[in-house]
Amino acid sequence: MDAESLLLSLELASGSGQGLSPDRRATLLTSLTLVKRDYRFDRVLFWGRILGLVADYYIAQGLSEDQLAPRKTLYSLNCMEWSLLPPATEEMATQTSVVKGRFMGDPSHEYEHTEVQKVNEGEKVFEEEVVVQIKEETRLVSVIDQIDKAVAIVPRGALFKTPFGSINVNRTFEGLSLSEAKKLSSYFHFKEPVELKNKTLLEKADMDPSLDFMDSLEHDIPKGSWSIQMERGNALVVLRSLLWPGLTFYHAPRTKNYGYIYVGTGEKNTDLPFML
Amino acid sequence: MEDSTTLKQEKENQELEEAGQPWEEMVTASSQDPESGLSEPPEVEQGPEAGPQTRSSPPGIPQSGASTPVDDLTGPGASTPPSPPQEPSSSPSPLALARQDFMAPWQSNKTTSVISEAGTPPSDHLEQPSDKGESTSHQTCQSEGNTFQLSQQTKCHLYGPRDVSYNNSKEKELRFDISQEKDSNSNYDLDQPESGASEMAPNMLEIAIQNAKAYLLKASSKSGLNLYDHLSEMLTKVLDMRPENPVDIIENISQDVKMAHFSKKLDTLQNENEMLPTYETAEKQKALFLQGNLEGTDQELEDEITEHALPNVMESAFYFEQAGVGLGTDETYRIFLALKQLTDTHPIQKCRFWGKILGLEMNYIVAEVEFREGEDEEEVEEEDVPEERDNGGSEADEADEDELPRSFYKAPQAIPKEESRTGANKYVYFVCNEPGRTWVKLPAVTPAQIVIARKIKKFFTGRLDTPIVSYPPFPGNESNYLRAQIARISAGTHVSPLGFYHFGEEEGEEEEEIEGGRDSFEENPDFEGIQVTDLVESLSNWVHHVQHILPQGRCNWFNPIQKSEEEEEEEEEEDEEKEDEKGEEPDYAEQEVGPPLLTPISEDLEIQNTPPWTTRLSSNLIPQYAIAVLRSNLWPGAYAFSNGKKFENFYIGWGHKYSPDSYTPPVPPPAYQEYPSGPEITEMDDPSVEEEQAFRAAQEATVNPTEENEETEEDEDEEDDYD
After folding, report:
1. Is the pLDDT of residue A154 over 80?
2. Tell me, what's the ipTM?
3. Would you call A89 an interface residue with chain B, using a CB distance cutoff of 8 Å?
4. Residue in B459, B652, B662 closest to A276 by CB
5. Residues B564-578 pLDDT 10s
6. What's this model's pTM, rounded to 2 decimal places?
7. Do B325 and A19 touch (CB under 8 A)?
8. Contact flag B362-A229 (C-beta cutoff 8 Å)
């Protein structure tokens, strides 16, 4: 959700119970403005919070002019002092995929993971147990990246592609219509398209190149990984990710208000097929 | 006819320039003849221009008309190759100027011929191409267009002479229509070479142009105008008035045109009122807000009770907001009103906002209520179903007296559910999907449902009658599952500060009382309050005030004495306590014991290094006014707060228990072993001849006296053998 309209957005997203206490709100409003100034961001998003056992991570993201350019992610424990997170890499993802359970809330906490590695000494092959230390900060980076890639979404038309190739915020976006708001195909993943290139010519025929430049939600795997609800009597559409429980996207049809927030444990719901 | 000859010449020149295909032209020209040749000779020559188009698509000319007008308008902006009609006016070619002279009289002929057609309003002309119908107008268009193909560039100059010939406004309008058509057709001819060149490729440009035109023709939902008409009217106005520097005042012209436009308000037969769901919901919720006024003053006693029953939702919502959880302010208030509605319509002694369970399609708002004494509503429902099944089985046993063995398997004995007001059924739960909708009472929970619910993990859909499809078959639909989850969550996460409740003295009358722990409590009038910092620092200051649910699925132990063989087999719960007792003797099952009431939560078991509770202070900045916030890690979404004196519990979430490992479906039940091969299964070999002979010898030896008998026996044996 946009840091500038934080209060309205929080109100809109409150149906899932994911709010912020008044002092946190006030702190964020202040500190995110400063973050925007200091880091020269074009736009600052309040991304959400990851619930730790001891403390919570508050996450913010800074966007540059080009909305799909790599984003910078910051975290904070007290909402006032923000630290920049390193960019996520594939290596980190594989490294942290072995860690399970909840976040601790301490960035310097180290998870220990014992791995069995094969060591060649001459001709003999030993199996040796190696203890791998994984910092929680690394895991945080990787989880945020995974969530972003999987479930960060924007409504169709909110962003548009300029002839120069950059992706900008669409000022003429007036919200989805009611009928569109109920369809998954009106929502796009907020990331570089992956599936788009695999589409057939027939599927591409109806697309508007300035708007349809991202993957839509409707082909997400597994099918049914989104819950879409109209709340307040159609005045608000809320999408909840079932794959990453805790991610809530809200959009008030016919207005520019949209955004997403993640409040959760930072764990993927691998039980989804059993639960549907 | 002089005109026509000169025109022909001109035409020929043009054709050469445009590099049309001569042969095709001839063919198509002949096909065009009946239509256009009658009107005037040049048509014969003109046909070819339209030729390729008509061949590719039979109603070609209307279509081309459809495509080209857009070009007129979008041309300058979209930078399409053909020169738009506006251009010539600024820089007329000498050729065109030369032509102007002889075009003028001829043009007058043409326009007059068209006037007969021109009764139709402008919009008709514009829409007509898409209709592809009306051969008459079609023809005129075509003829107009054809004539104007020759003099496309001069078109604008023709206004002069025409203005002279037509003075009255009506004719002006008509003329405009005509000129519009001319525009389109002439432009189409300009396009022609291009489309001819790209004949092989699919006509992408044309499709794009048609799409663009369709878009421009889309009427505005507010004013009913469309941009296409508007632009053409504007251009007409500019061309009529010939202002200086038109580009500078184009906005004003646009405004003038809009203001000049008036539309009659059309009567529709019936006003169809939109019935958006928004309005429906608002209508329903209106009842919530009205209720306070509707209540008469004669119900003062009633009011007293309901006031007592109604919880102060807003106050606890305020504290939960400090903690950073809860719904929005307005939704909370709506729920508050909905709870008021509930307490007004039911004999409720105590009511509490339990929380909200998220669903796939709709959510559940859950209220926890306690009915007034003796006013519990109908409770005798489907609880007899399993017993009936048992009875039926035993009756069948008695009825059949064959020797054939019947199934020895008996279903494990159904454990009866607890009485209302005790155990897991201590409270009654009402749910609704949205504040304002009707409250639905959830059925009482049965132990079997709790036991199965512990083994499955399903999303709620939001519809209470959804069947639950799961591997251990769940006895009931979603309402039962919801009720079971509510019972589990309440038992796990409802906590209060130490000392707030204490065991009452007169509680011995509870018939279900067992020696291990008492199951009822009351508020401690002498509760002094606890320091918030103490509540944050020590978990032992919080106690459970809801009874623990045993692995059996009940809060109070039910001894299934008769046949309790191994019903505890299925009780490897991940729940907080691990009961390792097994009733080995068939007649006696050892009692399951859980933590008694008012046990501190510091004794809760942790799951794989995850502490079950997290506490914190709501604000680090102003600790003196902060409240203690408790968060359950076992049931994500369960919260409790206390400011020392007050406390409240709240749940919002999907209604699932947390586990660090992914869900594993329960293992299938063991396959029943077959009978061990023993003496009653195996048989001996048939008696051999030697054995029989030996047997006979032995018999003879023992029974000498009766030989007749033996003989008969022999006979019989022999007979047997023969058989």
Report:
1. yes
2. 0.89
3. no
4. B459
5. 444 444 444 434 344
6. 0.67
7. yes
8. yes
Query: Per the structure block, which two tokens stand in for B152?
Result: 């496309």
Q: Would the pLDDT of B651 be above 80?
A: yes
| For residue A2, pLDDT beyond 60 | yes
Count of other CB atoms within 10 angstroms of residue A250: 24
Determine the 3-state secondary structure of B482 from DSSP. Answer: helix
d(C-alpha B450, C-alpha B503), whole Å: 27
User: Which of A7, A9, A21 has the highest number of chain B CBs within 10 A, making it the mutation to test binding with B?
Assistant: A21
Query: Any chain A CB within 8 A of the CB of B666?
Result: no
Percent of chain B beyond pLDDT 70?
A: 54
Q: Which amino acid type is present at position B476?
A: G
Question: What is the per-residue pLDDT for B366?
Answer: 93
Which phi and psi angles does B238 have, rounded to 5°? -60, -45
Interface contact flag, B662 A16, Cβ < 8 Å: no
* Closest Cβ–Cβ partner in A18, A53, A235 for B633: A53
Q: Is A101 near chain B, with CB under 8 Å?
A: yes
Question: What letter represents residue A14's amino acid?
Answer: S
Quick one: chain B helix, strand, coil %, rounded to 5? 50, 10, 40
3-state SS class at B218: coil
Q: Per DSSP, which regions of A41-161 are E strands?
A: 43-50, 57-63, 72-76, 83-84, 110-121, 124-135, 153-155, 159-161
Is the bond preceding residue B92 a cis peptide, omega within 30 degrees? Answer: no
Q: Does B208 touch chain A (CB under 8 A)?
A: no
Give the 3-state secondary structure of residue B307.
helix
The model's pLDDT over A81-92, given as tens digits with 9 standing for 90+, comes to: 899 999 888 888
**Domain extents in chain B:** 226-255, 310-376+413-503+522-557+592-668
Report residue B206: phi and psi, to 5°: -65, -40
